[in-house]
Each structure stands twice: as C-alpha cells, then as structure tokens.
Amino acid sequence: MAAPTEYYRGDGEGFTACLRTVKSWWWVVVLLFSVPSLPTVTALVEGLYCGTEVCYDVLGVTREAAKAEIARAYRQLARRYHPDVFRPTEPGSEGETHESAQRKFLLIATAYETLKDEDTRRDYDYMLDHPEEYYQHYYAYYRRQLTPKVDVRVVILVTICAISIFQVCV
Hints:
By secondary structure, the chain is an all-alpha fold.
C-alpha cells in the first residue's frame, strides 16, 4: 500500500490520480441524490384515456370482461349518474352534487368508449402493461383520436364525381 504522502508529492502525479478517482465517483453521488426526486413511472397519465383512473375500475369490471359485460356495466352506471336523471336524494348518493355526477358520467362514458373498441382496448392494455413507453402511448392515443374516420381517397372520388355531375347537368 502506498504511503499517504504519495498523493501530495511535489510532481503532482499522486494528486492528479486522487482527483481522477473523485471525479469518477462524483456521478454516483449525484445519481443517489437525484433518483428519489424523479417521478415514478406510471401508465396512468392525465389526458390519456381515463386520466389517472383505471378504466376497468371506473366501470367495475375485470380486465378479462367481455364486451357484453362492459356494456351492461356502462348502462347501469350511466343510468345512475346521467346529469338529466341524477337525483342527489337517491339512496347511495350521499355527498354527491350535480357537478360531481356530471364529472363521474363523463369519466364513465370515456371508460366505455375506451373499452368497447377492440383496437383502443388493446392499446390501453398495452399502456397498462408497459408504463415505461411513455411517448408511444401518446402517439397511439392521438393517432387513434385524430385520424380521419373516412379514407381520404373516398372523399376525393366522391367530390370529383359530384363536380362532374354538376358540370354535366349545368
């Protein structure tokens, strides 16, 4: 083992080696202090699907539920929380107002819209299973929400036909 005075030799070599050792361990100290402050990775993101709620829990069904069971659960909850028929005096609705019932109804409707379509449900299940793929979930969600429902080629074909018919008739 080297003597303690080796690090403080006059030529500076021992001191430089000590600095290299400190610099190589500095990132470990920074990492240890910064990891607890990082947000945890969760699949539930505000603004995607049901927000911070699990759509299956909102409807009260399991993940293996069939479409008929999901539709039945939606109809029961929608009947109870629909803003037009909600009565705060009903049993089981203690502490709920019309505004909270309306928010609950919108959440129930969003959960049903997510789970009734097989493709959307597959994307949602993938999001629950792989929470670390944050950006892919955003891409899949907004791609499904913003893509046109009708093929653009069909729209162009119908427009050209309508203009041609108009020109012939006039």
